[in-house]
Amino acid sequence: MANTYEYLDDRLGLSDLKALADKKTVPLHRGSYWYYWGGISLFCFIVQAVTGVLLLVYYRPGPEAYESVRQITNEIHFGWLIRSAHNWAANIFLFSTFVHMFSVFFMKAYRQPREFGWWSGIALLLLGMLFGFSGYLLPMDELAYFATKVGLEIPNAIPLIGPPIANLLRGGLEVSEFTVQRFFALHAVVLPALFLPLLMFHLYLVQRHGNALPVSEEAKPAAERKSIPFFPNFLAKDLAMWLITLNVIALMASLFPWQLGPPADLLKPAPLGIKPEWYFLSQFQTLKVIGQWIPGYAGEVFGMSLFTLGLVLWFLIPVFDTRSAKGNRARMATYFGIFVLTVLGLTTLWGYLAAA
Amino acid sequence: MSQEPNVAPYDSEPEDHSFTRRGFVKVALGGVCAAYGVAVAYPVYRYLNSPVEKAAAASKVREVKLPDADQLPKGSALMFKFGTAPALLIHHEDDTWVSMSAVCTHLGCTVEFQPAQSRIFCACHGGEYDARTGAVTGGPPPKALEVYTVTPMEGGMTITRS
Ligand code: FES
């Protein structure tokens, strides 16, 4: 045992890692609870990768997409469970990433020197939503078909370059087997290839700068601040959180298995009350409402510009918020965050009620 | 954050009676981990093994009906699937019918009936079998090909194995 450790240590520098882990601490305060959400997202991503590879074993993109998902769901042992876990973990991933992002926002953890953590995090969230969008089509059932059809109207609304982009994404003028095939390439190859290095970068920054303290906590004298060692104490709690997440995924996946609707059919009308997944509901509802004010193409363009503007502002908050950068309370930034959260929440709720 | 952070001991239980307690916690923790491991590994195993189970069930087939097989010209052979594996039906020049496994007993290549030499040949390592009995007549195969029973039926042949 001791010899093996020495052998490996000489060659891999294990004790350096251990020294690093020993030195690392995690601040302990009223808001410490929020530190877990990034870890939960990470765990969900790992579940996604594992269940994704498992689905890859039987999934066949292209014209057979629906049939292969039907086989996975109905014929392969535990196929329904793996598929369901992949879906639930995706939803929990996006949910916990949203929570993580807002907790970072309200702790003003995007402040110098953590700007790149904020930026890479938003990029990861956007990639996560693209994962969701591209993955949603893969079963090629009715809902998937219409969700994609509607979703592709968004790039379509960009003036001039929009329609060719939408056609390229679609691989034709209608959502078809070509769309599934290229969405699959996006979902299983392109997006992971972008996501993984970005995730490594994000985690590197977390390791480099440590957990951020909220402004209120930072104002306290050093002697009053508390923290716990990362190893093993915080890690143990983190792993416990992962275990809870695993249980939640398993529970949801078995109690509410993901359904497979009737196969997509070009000639069938859209089912009543159709709405996108919750993470696109806010945009969906906003576009719908704007569409009633400003009918037609102009409304779509206006809505899209509004989203883009909001996203850019949100993205650039570390640049704007100079007050909390200096360690002062920044009420404006907090209000902005509350505003964004409220708008997102209300439009999502509205979308639900409107569809129900 | 240049100051040394103030580290509060997170779990400071007294050391005296902790040996047995620690031991118990270790065993319990190990047990829980093992249970989770099994709970995850079992569905994954069954999931990946699904087609294997299906194939195993299909390979248990004892009888195959070959409609129209009686049209097979003399001196030629027909390949068919017996369960999941390839098999041969040979119509010899003297109007006898022979059926046998087409899986070489050496390393599993699919064999071929060669009417000119009236033999069964395996191209992988040059294995040779007798086209009537399936016995090895040359090359590396360790044992004969399994021979099946051929029974003529209305408009075809029925192949059975014991
Ligand atoms: S596999 Fe047929 S001779 Fe080797």
How would you characterize the overall build of this protein?
The complex is a heterodimer of chains A (356) and B (162). Chain A is mostly helical and 356 residues long. Chain A has a domain at 32-272: Cytochrome Bc1 Complex, Chain C (Up-down Bundle), CATH 1.20.810.10. Chain A has helices at 2-12, 14-23, 36-56, 65-74, 79-106, 115-137, 142-151, 153-156, 162-170, 177-209, 215-218, 230-255, 278-293, 297-315, 317-320, 322-325, 331-355; strands at 25-28, 226-229. Chain A has a two-stranded antiparallel sheet. In chain A, helix 3 (36-56) runs antiparallel to helix 5 and helix 3 packs across helix 12. Chain A is globular, with a radius of gyration of 23 Å. Chain B has two domains: 18-60; 63-160, Rieske [2Fe-2S] iron-sulphur domain (Rieske Iron-sulfur Protein), CATH 2.102.10. Chain B has one helix and ten strands; from the N terminus they run H-E-E-E-E-E-E-E-E-E-E. In chain B, strand 6 (119-122) and strand 7 form a beta hairpin. The model of chain B has no long low-confidence stretch (mean pLDDT 89). Classes of the chains: A mainly alpha (356), B alpha+beta (162). Chain A binds chain B through residues 25, 27-28, 54, 57, 75-79, 81-82, 210, 213, 222-229, 233, 243, 246, 250, and chain B through 1, 3-8, 10-11, 36, 39, 43-44, 46-50, 53. The complex binds FE2/S2 (inorganic) cluster. FE2/S2 (inorganic) cluster binds at residues 104, 106-109, 122, 124-125, 127, 139-141 of chain B.
Q: Got a strand count of chain A?
A: 2
What is the fold-level CATH name, i.e. the topology of the largest domain in chain B? Rieske Iron-sulfur Protein
Just give the CATH class of the largest domain in chain B: Mainly Beta
Instruction: Give a quick account of the main beta sheet of chain B: strands, pairing sense, barrel closure.
Output: 6 strands, antiparallel
Identify the notable features of this structure and list them briefly.
heterodimer, A: mainly alpha, Cytochrome Bc1 Complex, Chain C, two-stranded antiparallel sheet, globular, B: 162 residues, Rieske Iron-sulfur Protein, elongated
